[in-house]
Amino acid sequence: TPHVYPDLGVQLIAGFSSGLMAEYLPWWSRLFKNPIEAHNGFVSARQTPGIGWEFRDEFFAKSAT
After folding, report:
1. What is the mean pLDDT of residues 11-36?
2. Residue pair 59/31 in contact by the 8 Å Cβ criterion
3. Confidence at residue 17, expressed as pLDDT on a 0 to 100 scale
4. How many CA atoms lie within 13 A of 63 on its CB side?
5. What angle do CA 5, 43, 10 make, to 5 degrees?
C-alpha cells in the first residue's frame, strides 16, 4: 500500500495485479497544478506519460520566505 504521494501510488497500484489501495491525503493537492482527485473513494491513473507532478511555483515561493 503506497504511502503519502497519491499520484505516485495510483501509478504503482495500476502496474500490479495485486494492488488494492493507496493512501490519499487531500492536503497534498495544494502543491500541484493539476492534482489527482478522489471521487467516491476512487482515483484513476493519469493517461499522460509520467507521474503528472507539476508543482505550483507560488507554493514554493511562499515557503522560501
Report:
1. 83
2. yes
3. 84
4. 8
5. 40
CA distances from residue 4 to 7, 23, 27, 64 in whole angstroms, order as listed = 9, 6, 10, 22
State residue 51 phi and psi, 5-degree precision: -80, -30
Is residue 45 exposed (0-12), middle (13-18) or buried (19+ Cβ within 10 Å)? middle
Amino acid (1-letter code) at residue 14: A
Q: What percent of the chain is predicted at pLDDT more than 90?
A: 2
Output the 3-class SS for the chain: CCCCCHHHHHHHHHCCCCCCCCCCCHHHHHHECCCCCCECCECCCCCCCCCCCCECHHHHHHHHC
Note the pLDDT tens digit of each residue in 33-45: 888 888 898 888 8
